[in-house]
Design goal:
- This protein has nine helices and ten strands.
- With about 300 residues, the chain is an alpha/beta fold.
- It has a six-stranded mixed β-sheet with strand order 4-3-1-6-10-9. The chain has a two-stranded antiparallel ribbon with strand order 2-5. Strands 7-8 form a two-stranded antiparallel ribbon.
- A hairpin with a 6-residue loop joins strand 3 and strand 4.
- The chain is globular and about 55 Å long.
- It starts with 7 loop residues before the first strand and ends in an 8-residue tail after the last helix.
- The model has no long low-confidence stretch (mean pLDDT about 95).
């Protein structure tokens, strides 16, 4: 028997970009009873606050929510998120609280105050060639920045993860993750976040996802994980055993990421091994978290 039985599988493709509304933020829902995943759309795009409110107040019972963002920063490599800073938090939840405290005045759940903070900025690579003196610490190689244990495991699966301390370039994930941590802080007491919170016996749960893993499970390669036509999207859904959308023409990759990942979550949630990764220790769980789907 699977570890948990969920009724709804929700994938959220996230964005840390400036501004209020973002076409890049997409949400798709798949149901345990079958059928193709369905996009939950906003005409002008979602705000981060609207997603937060749905997860806090309108989430269907017994949902598994996949969030395409890093739920914490690297810790294990140096025994701290920010080695040498006396405000460096001891665990992920305290990290979320620190980011929120510094950014409480930033609009749209943005994080400019944190990445430009006099002390925190030393650990990030920012635009304009501003690389903090501690960005490449912790054994980072190739200028990519520090990685979590789960990201090292992603590398072994053929992926190329980027550091959450990197805020520059098309592949940067730093601002998405940091803005997401503000949302996670707001959801404390309302939605449990695995594995930072133990998997509960009932109720809804959020997990970190990496949409490339879903695409790979659907028959794509890591280098061709983005899907930009409905024909390719239906092929991927079929490979996951899902009913297809039966549409033709172009589709934006944010929508296809969410749709494919919702279908993948419906399958992956039944795999007990994905809830018990070999490298996931209690210390890593509470400090770095994990990416669901990395065994």
């Amino acid at each position: 028997m699977a570890v948990r039985q969920f009724e709804h599988f929700i994938a959220v493709d996230w964005s840390g970009a400036k501004g209020a509304r973002h076409k890049a933020i997409t949400m798709a829902v798949a149901h345990a009873g079958g059928g193709p995943p369905v996009l939950v759309e906003r005409d002008a795009g979602w705000t981060r606050g609207e997603v937060r409110d749905v997860l806090a107040e309108s989430l269907p019972d017994n949902s598994l929510v996949g969030l395409d963002l890093g739920i914490a920063l690297p810790f294990a490599d140096e025994g701290a998120y920010f080695p040498g800073w006396d405000r460096s938090p001891p665990d992920a939840k305290t990290l979320w609280a620190l980011i929120e405290a510094i950014c409480v005045g930033d609009e749209h759940l943005s994080v400019g105050s944190f990445v430009d903070h006099a002390e925190a900025s030393h650990y990030f690579r920012r635009h304009g060639g501003r690389e903090g003196s501690r960005f490449g610490a912790g054994g980072a190689t190739g200028g990519r920045g520090r990685l979590r244990i789960t990201e090292r495991a992603q590398e072994e699966m053929g992926c190329k993860p980027y550091s959450n301390f990197n805020l520059v370039g098309a592949a940067q994930v730093g601002k998405s993750s940091l803005t997401g941590m503000r949302v996670l802080h707001a959801l404390r007491g309302k939605l449990r976040v695995w594995p930072i919170d133990p998997l509960p016996h009932n109720g809804s749960v959020a997990v970190e996802i990496y949409t490339a893993l879903a695409s790979m499970a659907a028959g794509r390669s890591a280098s061709r994980s983005k899907i930009r036509t409905y024909e390719e999207l239906d092929e991927a859904l079929g490979n996951l055993g899902s009913e297809t959308l039966r549409k033709t023409g172009p589709v934006d990759d944010h929508s296809s990421d969410a749709i494919v990942t919702a279908a993948w979550l419906r399958n992956a949630a039944r795999d007990d091994a994905l809830w018990s990764p070999q490298a996931l220790t209690p210390q890593i769980a509470k400090t770095e978290g994990w990416t669901f789907g990395v065994a």
